[in-house]
Amino acid sequence: MLIGVPAETLAGETRVAATPETVKKLVAQGHTVRVQSGAGVCASVTDAGFAAVGAEITDAAGAWGCDLVLKVRAPQESEAGLLRPGSTLVGMLNPFDATGLHRLAAAGVTAYALEAAPRTTRAQSMDVLSSQANIAGYKAVVMAADRYQRFFPMLMTAAGTVKAARVVILGVGVAGLQAIATAKRLGAVIEASDVRPSVKEQVESLGAKFIDVPYETAEEKEAAEGVGGYARPMPQSWLDRQKAEVAKRVAQADVVITTALIPGRAAPVLVTQEMVESMKPGSVIVDLAAAQGGNCPLTQPGQTVVHHGVTLVGETNLPALVAADASALYARNVLDFLKLIINPEGALHLNRDDDIVAACLVAHEGAVTRA
Ligand code: NAD
User: Fold this and answer.
1) CA–CA gap between residue 266 and residue 287 (Å, rounded)
2) Number of other CB atoms surrounding residue 61 within 10 Å
3) Is 130 a catalytic residue?
4) Is residue 312 within 8 Å of 276, Cβ to Cβ?
5) How far apart are CA 131 and CA 319, in angstroms?
6) Out of 43, 53, 169, 317, which residue is the most buried by the measure of CB atoms under 10 Å away?
């Protein structure tokens, strides 16, 4: 089979969907892998690195016109026409973007959006949301430390003592947990909040304090349990009490990292303008929900702004800033997913009885296959 790896063209996208490690395995399975010249360069992988493991280096048309195309991001409008009707596309294809999915259906491809995989044990090795969120959580803390004009750790020096930074983390999914772990390694004092009660133990096991907002009604408790491991919108009564607790912590914080998301919806507002204005000058907020509208209304997606002396980082693609490891982990996720859609004879097959395949399938035979 011909497998293509085009270069990513979205502004700021530095990742690549295959690495020499995964290409080597695909070539060993008998496939021909065509990598677009320069596809890996922003992720520190040269054409020579791909060629050394048996890839053919081609132009864009060569990489797109394959039986199976591996991408990081959904094709842009101008690129959809480069796909061969009847071919298969695998990538992070925005399963909630109806326009994009219709474009893929119109291109006549079988398309799999990896973000739509269920959060099950079997799907863990191909869970792109986890592999990339983990990186985003790490990079958010590193960026905050870079912008913050003080130390993270408590230090006792001959010139006097320096206090540890107070870090507040809002939303403790995969990114939030890694943000806690990273801030802890740097010596910060950390508090964290999430709607899901199961998170408390994880927060405490990483050495942070959980901001407890008890549930007062059965409705609040039920909403907090979420669905499929994801959060659901919480009742206003609970959100109001959470806001009061969070406001107290944010006013004391030096760094706030927000990661709260609800799949398919705008991100919840957790840090209001008033809260930002209560913070000390020099404080830093990194809003990982920037691409989904932000957890703070002052966040400018893709920009870093200063409001009232507080720096707000609205970077929308943090994994792309750790391109080499982000690509390495993403490429392994892709390789694992391919095991579900390539049969032992090395040909593509569609098994709708497989729950992961069925969940990820977004377009097939000219139709969008996702509600
Ligand atoms: P996410 O990126 O969808 O959301 C980030 C966090 O924001 C979540 O923890 C969510 O509860 C929280 N949040 C939403 N609204 C909030 C609010 N108003 N206030 C505070 N926090 C709020 O989440 P994610 O990182 O994708 O993880 C979701 C869940 O899936 C987690 O429990 C994670 O451990 C689980 N998971 C399971 C598997 C698996 O079993 N294979 C793999 C990955 C993740």
Assistant:
1) 13
2) 11
3) yes
4) yes
5) 9
6) 169
What letter would DSSP give residue 152? S
Q: For residues 58 and 138, what is the distance between their CA atoms, to the nearest angstrom?
A: 34
Evaluate if pTM is beyond 0.90. Answer: yes
Mean pLDDT of 97-123: 96
Secondary structure class of 175 (helix, strand, coil):
helix
Size of the chain in residues: 371
pLDDT the model gives residue 228: 75
pLDDT at 371: 61
**Which residue carries 């959904």 as its tokens?**
74
CB 15 within 8 A of CB 78: no
- Answer whether 137 contacts ligand 1 (Cβ < 6 A): no
Ligand 1 neighbourhood includes 313 CB (under 6 angstroms): no
Residue holding tokens 């690509």? 327
Over residues 109-133, mean pLDDT: 97
Lowest mean pLDDT among 66-80, 103-117, 152-166, 221-235: 221-235
pLDDT at 370: 80
User: How many angstroms from the chain centroid is the CA of residue 137?
Assistant: 9
Active site residue 87: no
Catalytic residue, chosen from 122, 205, 230, 355, is 230
170 near 270, Cβ under 8 Å?
yes
- CA dist., res. 238 & res. 221, Å (int): 10
127 is catalytic: yes
Report the range of poorest mean pLDDT among 69-73, 265-269, 313-317. 265-269
Q: Which residues contact 221 (CB under 8 A, 6 or more apart)?
A: 215
Residue 227 has a pLDDT of: 79
Sheet holding 255-258, edge to edge: 209-210, 189-193, 166-170, 255-258, 284-287, 310-313, 304-307
DSSP assignment of 236-253 equals HHHHHHHHHHHHHHHHH-
